[in-house]
Design brief:
- The protein is α/β, with parallel strands linked by helices.
- Helix 5 crosses helix 6.
- The longest helix is centred in the last third of the chain and has 23 residues.
- It is globular, with a radius of gyration of 17 Å.
């Protein structure tokens, strides 16, 4: 009996973060170690990364960012629940804490995600192969529903649910990293329903 074929997708996140990182990602792609990338459209090197993706025909998705740097959407022009008083996103843990406290306005999440999709199309000239979240923001409660709705509306079929079994029991991970990994996995499991209902795989 023939065995079912399995396709392994290895995605390098944070494409566009900085030129040095991008060089390493392209090198890994050309060597066959990476099969796709996820682009930070608000990254310092987003434009040059987009050019590299086009030059090397790298399958590219959007690495939606709500936690680091500055926004690309309407939030950049004024006060927003997504931003600090200085105009930056709230950070990896700051965003999570704000979501948990109910301090994040989900319509502003939708606005920023849509703005990042538009910026992606401007940079790449086409739609993303997939969309996932920088620091796994896309699986947070409430936020995952916004992502699922917005991705379906924009014709995106693929995301990544970071269910990484066993990380919670890894003794080599320091306690804060282990706790974060467990929280992400818990959120990812809960996000399966919303993403599935909107046809995301």
């Amino acid at each position: 009996m023939a065995r079912a074929r399995v396709r392994l997708v290895v995605t390098a996140d944070d494409f566009g973060y900085c030129p040095r990182r991008d060089e390493g990602i392209v090198e890994a792609f050309l060597a066959g170690a990476v099969t796709s990338v996820s682009l930070l459209v608000n990254g310092a090197a987003a434009e040059s990364a987009a050019e590299l993706a086009g030059r090397h025909q790298i399958p590219t998705g959007l690495h939606a960012n709500l936690s680091e740097g500055r926004p690309v959407g309407p939030a950049r022009h004024g006060a927003s629940s997504l931003l600090s008083p200085e105009g930056f996103f709230l950070g990896k843990m700051g965003f999570r804490e704000a979501v948990a406290a109910g301090d994040v306005a989900l319509p502003q999440v939708r606005e920023e995600l849509e703005a990042q999709l538009i910026r992606f199309r401007e940079l790449l000239g086409g739609d993303p192969t997939h969309v996932d979240g920088h620091q796994h923001v896309h699986v947070l409660p409430g936020v995952c529903q916004v992502f699922a709705e917005t991705l379906q509306a924009n014709g995106v079929s693929y995301t990544r649910l970071p269910v990484e079994r066993g990380l919670g029991g890894c003794a080599w991970l320091e306690a804060p990293a282990r706790a974060f990994a467990c929280a992400v996995e818990r959120d990812a499991r809960a996000a399966v329903g919303p993403f599935s209902r909107y046809g995301l795989r």
